[in-house]
Queue: 2 jobs
Job 1
Amino acid sequence: MDLDKLWQSTMGEMEIQLSKANFSMWLRNSRPLDWREGTLYVSLPSTFAKNWVEDKYYKNILGILRNTDSSIKKVEFVINQKAQAQKTAPANNAPEAAAGGLEFGSAELETNLNPRYTLSSFVVGPSNELAYTAAKAIIEKIGKYNPFFIYGGVGLGKTHLIQAIGNEIVSKYDRKIKPKYIPSEQYTREVVWGLRNDRIESVKKKYRDADVLIIDDIQFIGGKEKTEEEFFHTFNALYESNKQIIISSDRPPQSIPTLEARLRSRFEGGFVADIGYPEYEMRVAIIQSKLQEAGRSLREDVVDLIARRLRKNVRELEGVLKKLVFLQEQKGGEVSRAAAEDIIDKAVKNTSKQVGDAQILKAVAEFFNVTIEDIVSHNRRKEIVEPRQIAMYLLREISDLSYPYIGEKMGRDHTTAIHSYEKINQEINRNSSLNQKILTIKDIIYKS
Ligand code: ADP
Ligand code: MG
């Protein structure tokens, strides 16, 4: 049996079934190793990839393989560290090698959607899987999961995903279903304009005629009473006629304090999904996907460096990427690691907010209704252990403090600090109530 051929043709089929971004993230670096007694051994670059592929694609892959050769009984995935090295190799045959692929396109007049945002360029992993799956379901059955409420921090792909839903709907239904996209600030401006110029009826009509209303960053309408009122009626009108409503926000409905209760409960009654921070592998895949879109490449170690250093905001990561690509073009040679480091340092310095340790501890204490003394004490009660771990997590996450420093601050050693950070960091993707707690605490921190 020619293993390479067999695997290639299987991957060919998988590539058709999956989106481009997904395929290159999870399967591009798989390699057949061996075939023994009905088992095909295949290498993958990391445990992370192995778990994901086994979980999501095992059945499909085995099915395709068995169609070709029924003597294959199972597939075993093996982690191969060496494959990691190939991971960041620049993608050849980039389809749209147009210059400036990293730039924004412009929005369509009627839908206000930017065609640049597609599902196939959206990299999926544990931190956004639920939201992505929901998006697919919504495209299939418009109006069934209503409203769809997606929330998550800045630059994590909310706008990308909700606009992609709109764009997919336009192409899938051959323009017969009309989505309309609007950031909530713009909606507010239109409502204010309508009220002032006696044209509110035309604003009303504009949004009630949509088949799918996509409203971005809804948190900004909180507290703007007239706009909320208007939106509430539009929401109800659309909802009652089974039109799809898609809403994004930087936090869950219950954490938008100024939002009117009746709107909040409407939102809570829908399909609520969160987007968390992308894992390292996802960040690498996102970088590769952006580079490929732009028909550009960067050195492997530079890609790795960007993915390691920029963990919390994909937009920021893209900003650095653009700078590096630009620099590379100007110099006409590869950007060195040192130059990349320099650019990343500047980007990180610009965005990290100056938040003090005391502020973080105070906010955690306030949220859990415990004292700061409790948090730094050696008390092992569950009600104290959780705030303590979250405090260590936030000291790292927000202030980027070293583990030894955090340990000392909390009266512990650095391994405890590492353990706490890692534990919360993993858990946050699986446990949405934990994620919510942390979002709310961050809110308290940034408001103080
Ligand atoms: P948000 O609306 O959550 O603040 P955006 O949707 O504007 O974030 O995302 C910021 C940038 O990061 C966009 O250019 C988007 O394409 C990119 N991005 C974020 N998440 C992903 C992802 N999972 N796959 C590909 N690109 C992403
Ligand atoms: Mg956005």
Job 2
Amino acid sequence: MNNLNHIAIIMDGNGRWAKERNLPRTMGHKKGVEKVREIAIYANKLGVKCLTLYAFSTENWKRPETEVNYLMSLPKVFFKSYLKEIMENNIVIRMVGDMERIPSEAREIFESAIEQTKNNTGMVLNFAMNYGGQNEIVKAALKFANDYKEGKKDSLDEESFKDYLYTAGLPDVDLMIRTSNEQRISNFLLYQLAYSEFIFTDTYWPDFSCEDLDKCIEEFNHRTRRFGGLNETKNN
Ligand code: IPE
Ligand code: IPE
Ligand code: MG
């Protein structure tokens, strides 16, 4: 586990999980929220330092309004049900994404959870909400341009650019998992995934279990990372 600082998950397949059971798509999202709790508590127990979960992309606004509204109501459901347990487990809540378009009720719930958990010292549970990797990079570039214009910064490199991203201060992603057998990134953490290991699993997110996470970590532990060089970095 010592090389596993940051796991990022594209929680995909809620809709198909529901469809297979003749349920409305929203039921898949509801079940998905319960999985967020289960996997977050477990990852924290394993000693993972940061878990980033893709909850809503900048492209998900294309979905029917009823589904978007349902998804935007989930932060309330999640924190109402589980904030107490999150506190007991010493987990820190963070959020990455473009906050401005998120309805004020969901935004305020997030802000309150971030505030309440800010002095915890366990895993960072980082929600990607209205998140898009391209949007993040463009915003970061604009912020740097502004700092440059105001004379606050006069140089930029790959490392210092990270301070302008939503994920500032978080470690690079070691392992990216996508559920539901889709093999693409869908605009997730484009900058941060530069040298991550990727695992694509068939399981739909509502069926993803702690054992599945164990299996992913086991596979990660057998990978060899070279970061472009010749010295092999074993993950275990
Ligand atoms: C992932 O499940 C949740 C979100 C994108 C919000 P989907 O809703 O994409 O489920 P599928 O891919 O249609 O099965
Ligand atoms: C990615 O899943 C976004 C989230 C899991 C929040 P999508 O279901 O939106 O991705 P595509 O459209 O299949 O690429
Ligand atoms: Mg999907």
